From TrEMBL:
Listed Gene3D superfamilies: Ureohydrolase domain
Full protein name: Agmatinase
Listed EC numbers: 3.5.3.11
Entry annotated with the keyword Methyltransferase: no
Lineage: Bacteria, Pseudomonadati, Pseudomonadota, Alphaproteobacteria, Acetobacterales
Family: Belongs to the arginase family. Agmatinase subfamily.
Single GO MF descriptor: agmatinase activity
This protein's UniProt keywords: Hydrolase, Metal-binding
Length: 301
């Protein structure tokens, strides 16, 4: 046989190998790790998520009976970044995101969401609603002395008018946080559902609360894998106990049929701390769930 062996070819998400950026749905990796997590290593996250997605290519979604691979979808590989240059990297990410119609991004650390929201806000001509699943509020004004980092993307997104904080809901929050940051976040109109509250509500009631906040306008989903408990996602930079179980996160996303999502990311997978690919598989499955939901919404339209 001519050419390289298949194991030498970088895998596409869900086995998707096309590279045309003009598809309706574009999967892209952003291997950015600016070293401000407690445990570094997210630059290898996109590759790990793609590898783990091989577990999801046989058959269709067991609830929606949709196949994300039937969408007009491509995996364009990795976005370019400017290594060591945070503002330069953010500008590069925004420029590349602007060329894509509907992005599903595999991170990388959470700072990458800011330029993705900048590109999306320009594309639709205004702010979006936001479902933010995380252990941390990520609305600190700075992060270890840096203005732009993984703990501050939504502070800047709110200040820049990229998201409508009255249509922003944070799910799974449970890390230590200073009262000033908490009060500022609530004061902007953001709805916070703590990790314990989310589990007490259950996926069905939680989904209804998310719907009530997001409304009918355009929305974005940003899923930090540390929203899950470390028992289900040990491979992440800043783990916090008391998080959601994998099935609870699945149950939430599966119930968001009809929400007008315009893009999503799943971030903060650090393979060096993973065990048996369980964190990477969780991230891959959440992206697959999102795409299955998009396929269902296409059927409904």
């Amino acid at each position: 046989m001519a050419g390289p062996p298949t194991f030498a070819t970088p895998p596409g998400f869900l086995g998707i190998e096309r590279r045309e950026a003009g598809a309706a749905y574009v999967v892209a990796g952003v291997p950015m790790d600016i070293g401000t997590t407690n445990r570094a290593g997210t630059r290898d996250g996109p590759a790990a998520i793609r590898r783990a997605s091989r577990m999801l290519v046989d058959g269709v979604h067991p609830t929606h009976w949709t196949d994300p691979r039937a969408l007009d979808i491509t995996d364009i590989g990795e976005f370019a970044i400017a290594l060591g240059d945070i503002p330069g990297s953010l500008a590069l990410i925004e420029r590349q995101a602007a060329a894509c119609r509907h992005l599903v991004v595999l991170g990388g650390e959470h700072g990458i969401t800011l330029p993705l929201l900048r590109a999306l806000s320009k594309r639709i001509g205004g702010p979006v609603g936001l479902l933010h699943c995380d252990a941390h509020v990520d609305t600190w004004a700075d992060n270890f002395g840096q203005a732009y980092a993984h703990g501050s993307p939504f502070y800047h997104a709110i200040r820049e008018g990229l998201v409508d904080p009255r249509r922003m809901i944070q799910v799974g929050i449970r890390s230590p946080v200073d009262r000033a940051t908490w009060d500022w976040t609530i004061g902007q109109g953001v709805t916070i559902v703590t990790g314990h509250e989310a589990q007490e509500l259950g996926p069905a009631a939680l989904a209804e609360r998310v719907r009530a906040v997001l409304g009918t306008g355009p929305a974005y989903l940003s899923f930090d894998i540390d929203c899950l408990d470390p028992a289900f996602a040990p491979g992440t930079g800043t783990p916090e106990i008391g998080g959601l179980a994998s099935w609870q996160a699945q149950g939430l996303i599966r119930r968001l049929r009809g929400v007008d999502f315009r893009g999503m990311d799943v971030v903060e997978v650090s393979p060096a701390y993973d065990h048996g690919e369980i964190t990477a598989l969780a991230a891959a499955t959440l992206a697959w769930e999102y795409l299955a939901l998009r396929a269902l919404n296409r059927q409904d339209s």
